[in-house]
Amino acid sequence: MTARSTLRTVRAFVAIPLPDEVHAALDGLQRRLRRTCPERAVRWVPTRNIHLTTHFLGDIDPARIVPLEEALSVVARNVPPFTVLAEGAGAFPNLRRPRVVWVGVTDASQWLSLLHQVLSESLEQLGFPRETRPFSPHLTLGRIRRQTSPTEARAVGEAVAAAQIGPLGTVPVESLVLFKSTLKPTGAAYSRLATLRLGKPEI
Question: What is the pTM for the complete model shown?
Fold first, then answer.
């Protein structure tokens, strides 16, 4: 994609916002892991930017935003509010060769899985392809830097495993947010394009 075409698109994703208490718990966890992981091995995500992402849409034409809002609104008002639990920690693809460090999300009611499925079907009708990988809800804490050696990466995995992370807090799922992501030299900056409340028609 050329620089000129990039200016005409919006980098967007759908996510569930987190309460302040969970952001604070994630911040505390990051501080713990920073002390035990090799220095500069991980690019930590600013905790204020951490959301429960359901769908990454990529760079889209701004003309698609209104149809997206309408589709998300239909899905949202047909799903009641529910809760999930942020707990545990791990890494993709695994703790021996970590690339992404995450906190887990427990979906005991299965409402999150259902919401993801219905959203996938709705987005597919708008031309967004389905994810080929199974849905694995998580909160991204950090990503292993490219220059990190295999030994250092393995040490990160060992630090995550040794941390023995328990429950970090309940996440009330009351709305879906369509976010815009703007890439800056200091990192990604997120802004809300639309907020769709669950279980209620949009006004």
Answer: 0.89
Say if 45 falls within a structural domain: yes
Name the catalytic one among 23, 51, 55, 116: 51
116: left (phi over 0), alpha (psi -120 to 50) or beta: alpha
Active site residue 138: yes
pLDDT tens digits, residue range 22-72?
A: 999 999 999 999 999 999 999 999 999 999 999 999 999 999 999 999 999
DSSP code of residue 81 = -
Tell me which residue range forms the domain holding 146.
10-197
Say if 18 falls within a structural domain: yes
Q: Domain for residue 117, yes or no?
A: yes
- Does 168 map to a domain? yes
Helix axes 111-125, 65-77, angle to 10 degrees: 150
Non-local CB neighbours of 198 within 8 Å, separated by 6+ positions:
76, 77, 79, 80, 81, 82, 173, 174, 175, 176
| Chain centroid to CA 122 | 19
Find the CATH number of the domain harbouring 91. Answer: 3.90.1140.10
